[in-house]
Amino acid sequence: MTTKYSKQLIPIAGWEREETFRFFSTFSQPFFNVHTEADITPLYHYCKKHRLSVSLAYMHATVQAARNVENFLLRLENGQVVKYDGLDLSTTILKDDHNIAFTHFPYHEKLEDFCREAAAITAEVKKSKKLFNGYQGVDLLHMTTLPWFKLKGMEHAFSLTPEDPGVPKIGYGQLELTADKVILPISIGLHHALADGYHMHLFMQALETVIQKYGS
Asked: How confident is the model at residue 215 (pLDDT cuts 50, 70, 90)?
C-alpha cells in the first residue's frame, strides 16, 4: 500500500486497547459518529482580516488537531494496527458541473501556505471530469462540507469490508453566526476498534487549542 507518511506497527498483544480492539473488530459496522460544534470565532476573524478561505482554514485546523491525537493517526492494515507519523486530508470539492470530486490537499504547517496550495488545487479540480484527484492513501482524514443548511447530524456513506483501514470521517455544516460567535457544526466518525469517545474529546480539546491561537 503506497502511503505518504512513515508508520510504525502497534503490536496488538499486550496493547492497552487489545480487548477493546478485538471486541469492536468483530462488528459488521464498527464506526461511531458524534455530532457536535466548535467555536471558531478567532479563526474566522483571522481569515477575514487576512483574506483567507474560512472553510480551508477550519479544515487545516482539523488536521493540525488530529495530528496531536494518537488515535486519529491509527489505521488497520492486514489485520494489524499501525500508527502514521503524519496526516493530510482528502475533501469533497463541488465541481462546475455540480458533481463532487474527492481531492487531496497536502498538509502545510503554516495556514497561509496550506490555503494558497489548496485554493490552486480547488480551481483546477472544479474544471476536472475526474472523481478522484491527487493522492488518496490511508494516511488522510476524509472530509466533506455541507454549507447550504444547518447540520444536526450526519452519517457517512462507505463500503465496509474487513480490509477497511478505519480512516476518520469529518463532516461540516453551515456556519452559525451570532452577534459575538461563529459556530461550526461538525460530525466526526471513528472506527471503534481504534478510538473511543474519550479520544473524540481529546480531539475537540486539541481543535480548540489550535483555533484559540488565532485570537492572540
From this structure: confident
Please name which of 89, 105, 100, 99 lies closest in space to residue 168, comparing C-alpha atoms.
89
The C-alpha cell of 60 is what? 487545516
Which residues lie closer than 8 Å to 212 by C-beta, 6 or more apart? 42
Cα gap 137→90, rounded to integer Å = 9
pLDDT of residue 3: 75
CA dihedral (43, 202, 135, 146) in degrees, to 10, reads: -60
pTM value?
0.94
Give yes or no for a contact between 56 and 119, defined as CB atoms under 8 angstroms apart: yes
Looking at per-residue confidence, does 95 or 158 come out higher?
95
Among 133, 141, 120, 115, residue whose Cα is nearest residue 62: 141
C-alpha 32, offset from chain centre: 15
CB atoms within 10 A of CB 85: 12
Average pLDDT over every residue of 151-171 = 81
Reported confidence tier of residue 162, pLDDT bands at 50, 70, 90: low
Domains and CATH numbers, the chain: 7-215 (3.30.559.10)
- The pLDDT of 87-112, averaged and rounded, is 95
Q: In angstroms, rounded to a whole number, what is the distance separating the alpha carbons of residues 104 and 118?
A: 9
Q: CA-based angle 160:163:165, to the nearest 5?
A: 85
Name the nearest CA neighbour of 191 among 160, 151, 152, 154: 160
